[in-house]
Design goal:
The protein is mainly α and 205 residues long. The protein has a domain of 141 residues: dinb family like domain (Four Helix Bundle (Hemerythrin (Met), subunit A)), CATH 1.20.120.450. 51% of the residues lie in helices and 10% in strands. It has a two-stranded antiparallel ribbon. Helix 4 packs antiparallel against helix 6.
């Protein structure tokens, strides 16, 4: 079996291999209802996390060159919608026909759309993701089940101990792909908490 590599041709770091092993192990252990429940809990936590944020705080940019909370929320919504679409294809026995959902997917609305609209769209995108799993079978995917080419991002340590992202492609079945969506939500929930902690105290109306 060839050595797995990232988008730069480098071997996968232990953190990336651990992520793949986690998805494969957990997907084999969990039924469809359990996966859906875990995604729903992650989505609820994320929505609760943005509920107390106002428009000024959402567009604050505490780290130069990094996303704002509004841009993060837009990214999550866009990714959820594409993820739901790909899940529907997989559950209907087809390989998704479109390019992969790239890791920096955004619409641009995070820079100008009203904050309350972005929050509403986040909730709608979560519902779309969960709806795509309605009626999903409990039987595990087999060797003939379709997979989707997925962009994965894992944080690894460079020689100086700094955490940097490693990007790589993986072929995931529907259960693995659904659990990857949950990891995506958890990762951005952490990011939003870090942005809030670094932002100036928000102005309240």
């Amino acid at each position: 079996m060839p050595e797995l590599s990232d988008v730069d041709g480098l071997p996968l770091a232990p953190e990336s291999l651990q992520m793949l092993a986690y998805l494969r192990k957990r997907s084999s252990e969990m039924d469809a209802a359990g996966i859906r429940t875990r995604i729903a809990a992650a989505a609820r936590d994320l929505e609760e996390g943005v509920a107390g944020i106002n428009a000024v705080e959402a567009r604050s940019r505490p780290f130069e060159g990094k996303w704002t909370i509004a841009e993060v929320v837009d990214h999550i919504s866009q990714t959820n919608v594409r993820g739901a679409e790909e899940l529907r294809h997989l559950l209907e026995g087809r390989r998704p026909p479109y390019p992969p959902v790239y890791e920096a997917l955004r619409s641009g609305a995070g820079q100008w759309a009203p904050w309350n609209l972005l929050v509403e769209e986040l909730g709608a995108s979560h519902r779309a993701l969960l709806d795509a799993l309605n009626g999903a079978p409990d039987a595990p995917p087999d060797a003939s089940s379709p997979t989707v080419r997925t962009v994965m991002v894992a944080l690894r340590k460079d020689p100086n101990g700094k955490q940097i992202p490693q990007l790589f492609f993986a072929e995931l079945n529907w259960k693995e792909y659904a659990l990857a969506q949950r990891l995506h939500l958890l990762d951005h929930r952490r990011q939003i908490k870090e942005l809030r902690a670094a932002s100036p105290a928000p102005a309240r109306p």
